[in-house]
Amino acid sequence: MANENLIITDDIDKIAKTAVDYINNQLEDITPENYFTIALSGGNTPKKLFRHIAENYNKALPWKRIKLFWGDERCVPPESDESNFKMTYDNLIKFIDIPPENIFRIKGENDPDEEACNYTKTLEQNLRFRRGHPSFDLILLGLGEDGHTASIFPDRLDLFTTEDYCATAVHPVTGQRRITITGKIINNAVKVTFLISGIKKAKVVREVILRSPEASRYPAYFVNPVDGKLKWILDAEAAGEL
Ligand code: 6PG
Question: Cβ(219) to ligand 1 under 6 A?
């Protein structure tokens, strides 16, 4: 089933090189005063990729022309091991030559509702607009076993129809509060890439990619960039049911 928008590989260097080449190619089309804007995913899956890029491709990317954002954050302080920012700092940011002013952290330590408003303003002030709304050049997404993505969980499919750019959410199992970008932002990106690993995701991956009827209960089912590209990068286990 592999095609250009579906990469199945366990080779972390292939994934890293694909990402680096894509960003560099895109930067050629962006005027010098502009930036390449990326919303990063959290959780565990991106750690290996971030660390591989930090150790092997730090000098291959013009970090001064790249702005880092997050697709979601846990409502915890940045020092917490639960923090997506901390995971990214520990595996990528502390190794690369990126100016601090290019890093736009969701402040998990703030009041969630206030921070959702703050991050909305951050997106409006730092992203280019396409179709009248802020638009990332690239959004990296993970996938939960329940089909969630970013922090849009199955009980909040309304976050794919809201006009808001950011929202608060609650993890349905842990009760942990979250801040997330919404479908309005996700589907207005130039490119959205799912990075998924592990056999536990294989069933949901199959249902979403094959658009099975029951997949419409999964938030990931509604990721469909209106004028952009959707790419899947899966390891062999996550692709095991395709
Ligand atoms: C988060 C993520 C979330 C994550 C998936 C997959 O804050 O946890 O943004 O959407 O990408 O839950 O997580 P794993 O990579 O840990 O399986």
Answer: no
Q: How many CB atoms lie within 10 A of CB 26?
A: 14
User: What would the DSSP string read from start to end of 135-164?
Assistant: E-SEEEE---TTS-BTTB-GGGGGGGT-S-
161 lines ligand 1 (CB under 6 A): no
Greatest CA separation found in the chain? 46
Nearest CA to ligand 1 atom 10: 150
The model carries a pTM of 0.97
Identify the band that residue 228 occupies on the pLDDT scale cut at 50, 70 and 90: confident
pLDDT at position 3 is 74
For residue 1, what pLDDT is reported?
47
Are 220 and 183 a contacting pair, CB within 8 Å?
A: no
- Establish how many alpha carbons lie within 13 A of residue 167's alpha carbon, considering only the half-sphere containing its beta carbon: 21
84 CB under 6 A from ligand 1? Answer: yes
Residue 88 beta carbon below 6 angstroms from any ligand 1 atom? no
Domains in the chain: ranges and CATH: 37-140+148-181 (3.40.50.1360)
